[in-house]
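Write out this protein's structure.
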Amino acid sequence: MNAGPTSNPRGERAGTPGAAGVTELRMVEVVVEDDDGESPFGWRELPAPNRATRRAQNRAARRAK
């Protein structure tokens, strides 16, 4: 059993009807106003870092000494 490429190339497949349809690109402008220092995710303050982040911060602090 050969897993490599075959020596006989396959023929081209017929296209799917309607696959080459016309597309229209439109520019949409969205204005986002800053609201009371709230983040885009709706947080008032950042969540507490998880254990891996705290450990990395501690390692970096130890190396900086």
